[in-house]
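Lab notebook, bench 4. The sequencing result for the construct came back, and we need a structural model before the next group meeting so we can plan mutations. Quick request posted to the team channel:

Model the 3D structure of this chain.
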Amino acid sequence: MKVILRSNLRPQKHISEGSCIILGNGPSLKKVLSDYAEVLENHTLVCVNKFPDTEHYVRLKPRYYVICSEEFWATDTIDPHHQGRLNMIKAAVERTTWPLFFYIPESSKSNPVFLQEIRENTNITIVFYNTTPVEGLPGVSNWLLRNRLGSPRPHNVLIPSILNMINSGFETIALVGADHSWIPMISVDENNNALVNQQHFYDAESSKSQRMYRSGKKPRKLYEILEKFMFSFRAYFDLKDLAESKGVNIYNCTEGSFIDAFDRKPISEVLES
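Done. Here's the predicted structure in token form:
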């Protein structure tokens, strides 16, 4: 019923082949970019969130860009990161001089001004995707996911990134910068504010513990933060099942990653293949 009511029942399709590397924004990506930047230039890359607003974007020229959070286009958010997200989109629009497929949730259509700003760059092709949460009977869920009618709960942008690359037809997907090492970074201050220090490759040394927000409007309590993380880690097992059913190999090439769903492989082996 959720899918019928919330999803676009005729979702867009984009077909690719071969292999791709998804660049998560975790702190470990900094070393990968330092050691393998020249080699990465020769691979099909998928980037997320802030990556277009970094020095590496123009050099690596990712083929795909994925966002998920509604705070990117919401007009009533109180999330302190809202302006930063607007800067990410502005950077993508201003700096993209090569063909780029930009994956954006269907719900972004509620803000046509946001979409029009992106369409001003003719190098960018928008691909809309459904984010309606899919869970329940494994067989039914798998069918809905492979037909692009929904997603495992998209509490992290890596989830729809993997899902969309599976459904695009890639045979091998490698993950780097997918640390997901937030659990040791959780704390609660003397005012009972639940805080998380979410480090990224571009701010690992300067990031601070901050509150997390639900839909950009309400700070999350500790149990809500833990619930969010639980949904994220569980989603990767749903994606693993989907990938196996379609003959897709997913390798986690992130050293020290907390994601326990996918087979591990050093990034050097992926880049050499």
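The chain has one domain: 17-272.
Will bring this to the meeting.
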